[in-house]
Structures
1.
Amino acid sequence: MFSARISFCTLSLIAFAANSNTYAANPTAWVKHVIFEDTNCPTAVAGDFTGDGKVDVISNSGGKCHLLIAPNWEHVVLHDNKEHGCIHSEVMDVDRDGDLDYIAARYNPGLIFWLENNGTRENWKWRLIDQKVHGIHGLLVGDVDQDGIPDLIANSAQPKEPFPESLVWYRTPAKADGDWQRIVAAQGDAPGLTHYLALGDVNQDGRPDILTGAKGGPQAEPNSGDYFAWWEAPENPTTDGWKKNMISNQEPGATNLFVVDVDQNGVNDILASRGHGKGLCWFQAPDWKRTDFGNDLEGPHCLTLNDFDGDGDQDAATCAKDSKVTAWFENDGKGNFTTHSIDDDQAAYDIRSIDMDGDGDIDLLVAGQASKNVVWYENRMK
């Protein structure tokens, strides 16, 4: 049996400016809710999976897909296959029947599948998406071809055929049992062990581009990683070639990135983290001038953006897998970030921002790989 535990996390000793290690106190409190404890939990997603208006959670650990039903976090195993331990997941109404389905990916050998929500709390049908891309670390739902139907993006980070070191996207089938059309965006030009993905209009031509970060390091081919890059969407994204553009190739441990107007000047910038290195940064368009912040954090492997303090600009949050610090970064609206620590005893691979309790503000959901748990942090800044 899995029970929920609650603790108070005070922002103590905390607030340091973007490029400073000078600390100051901040009394704002968040509440930590532990809703699941098991073996390593690398990924968790949230949504109303049961149709009762409450936000539930699905996590993956030990080859099992665990549905955690709000508000008491009743535990239901949706899928159990020890060969299907997954590193990342997403939520989509795949079959367009009005409820949320679950999508997950195994790293290597590659496997992407989805579980069809049948309106009950069990016996969701397992369906294959693809097993020909290898090294899938990131999944992302977004409308790549702008036809009004969400697509799925994945990376093929391993140098293995038939799509070595590539980025691919899939058109969602019209029927639940249909095949997912695979389109290769980055054909063999995404080396260095790519991680997570972003979708956004970088050059503001009206078409969403695909982005990724490559961690590099000793597991990658020499001089192949440590970069953030974007692939320019062509006029026809299903048939035309995508052009690679470098944002920065001086980013050891690069993992996450988002397309966002950080300084609110009407131009899209890039906000990123080095999840196998140190710290976060943002790149100001169009010249990609870098500003670092959160420099003390080791392994900020996960990243999410949202307006956590309700002041109208985009803030950031992470949970560092090595420092074991959960923190959010307050944007002053001009790209100056103040770091606020939430918790100093939680590790994570995955973080999501969502209003978990329906009170109108944005909370955080964390899948604690090394912490072997799933937690959410209740935002009490109001």
2.
Amino acid sequence: MVYAMGSIGLLGFLVWSHHMYIVGLDADLRAYFTSATMIIAIPTGIKIFSWLATIYGGSIRLAVPMMFAIAFLFLFTLGGLTGVALANASLDVAFHDTYYVVAHFHYVLSMGAVFSLFAGYYYWSPQILGLNYNEKLAQIQFWLIFIGANVIFLPMHFLGINGMPRRIPDYPDAYAGWNYVASVGSVIVTIATGLFIYIMYDQLVNGLENKSTNKSVIYMKNPDFVESNSIFMLNTVKSSSIEFMLDTPPAVHSYNTPAVTA
């Protein structure tokens, strides 16, 4: 993983003209930048398969952070595949500055990086704050934003293939259908974002519900983990993985032998 990330960083400095295929590059430069860009797919594939191998070797529990992580893998991979298509100068001449490009980088960024941020928030906020979020509402928020984001950006591939340019304030009526679908998706994502804001508010206000009441069952607190304390936490919280079992920051030689989980 470390070498793969380093390789992506290095290769990223060598591929800038894949944004510039139509400015008059000669055939040799187009061939080089096509090849150099496609080579990035190799370390990226290593990262994807490493993540999948990590999941395969573990005990999967579909809590909200894991759902966002799996969705990230799917969306990031799809965005990467369309990036391989755009890496080819012969295709990019047709797709350049169309909505196909918009769909590509939003699958990688808006739906890759942003889904990772959601996963990180849901995973770490109970540890950092000592407050629990509403698990049911969080799952609803996940499905809303997953469906809504795909409804926005998947049709943009079709618009781009049909030649709709980006950065243009208007478009022919022939493109109205898929634009309407994308607009519906934007409404769904807006609702999901509003729900996420409410979830954060509810977590701060009601996150310390007593587990003995029926109402509190919906608040996320994993039942089979130990207590942990942190100087950053507002309250003691049950930990959800090995790193949460330790103090923050963890002491040197926290374990005399490798930790074994049931």
3.
Amino acid sequence: MNSQLTSADRQYLQRALELAERGRGRVSPNPLVGAVVIRDGEVIGEGWHAELGGLHAERAALADCERRGEDPAGATMYVTLEPCAHQGRQPPCVEALLEAKVARVVIASDDPSEKTAGRGPTILREAGVEVDFATDPETTAARLLNQPFRKHARNGLPFVTLKLAMSLDGQTTTAPGDSPWISGPESRALVHRWRAESDAIAVGIGTALADDPLLTARPDSGDTAQTPCQPLRIVFDSDARLPVTSQLLQTLDQAPVLIVIAPNADPERVSALRDAGAEIVVASGETPAVRIEAALSDLGRREVTSLFLEGGQSLATSFSAAGQIDESRTFVAPMLLGDDDRRAGPVVGEGGALRAGSSSAPPSPAPPARATALASSVETVGDDVLITARFKEW
């Protein structure tokens, strides 16, 4: 049941949410989860899901109790997601809670997974454990923590985040011969952190040809205590034009490359890309939106729960028109680049996106072509302004 939480309950749930963040970029396709064990107003154990295949937060917190020489019997556990009751990479957390004789479990949010939803809390209650679900703001915070996991659990598709960088006059590219960077060094460092936290990063073929990017996560050495996880690198390339000499295909030892093509792509070019080591996905469908759905569905089957769109205009337009952008992160740099026919705004009208950037998309709560954010925030990053807009909540 939902309960009126005390100020102490909220404090411990906030701590559990902080702990959950420590697994970011390390546990996908699993959710971020944190847990705190309290007895007589004292913390006797803390834990979080630290890496895929490792202990879940509840078992990690109970193990911490043991390390501290504390007995969790009769204690309260605060956890950000309902405990699982099924065997996965780890045994059910519910079993560990019952074995530890925990008296009360306070849960910040539900788990929408079909194999999980509601089972753990039911088993705990039937065994005599008091189970309480939190209400806002802790519930909302816990759900927002795991938007990629929640979306994938509900419809099998990855959570799509669009990253943009533009000048004050709306330009997203610089003129030939100029520095390629619009955003500042602090913003670029943040983007590398986001890459490391994403399952996959995507660009259109236009960006791949113009920039020859690596698309690897390269955060500053002080930005992460561990070697960053590298995302799957994706190019939406209808006509299979990516050169086999590209940096992407020359660095397969760093991260895999997947190329999304149209059914009528040149077979010889497709074969050359395969021979170079790229994975190929054929996105079929009568409309761009259906082709985007096909590509996203394929990624979902690969357990890609988060997709980071990093360029360019055609790709952004295709996903926007298909209603497949869940969140956008836009850097606005303090510069004027001037009107130039060679450049356009970040999301252009319907057009060549799917020829230049082959795509596909899914049904689900999709915003209209002109979408209004459910929530937004503004912050400064170095000299830039970062605008984050969330269009869907899962």
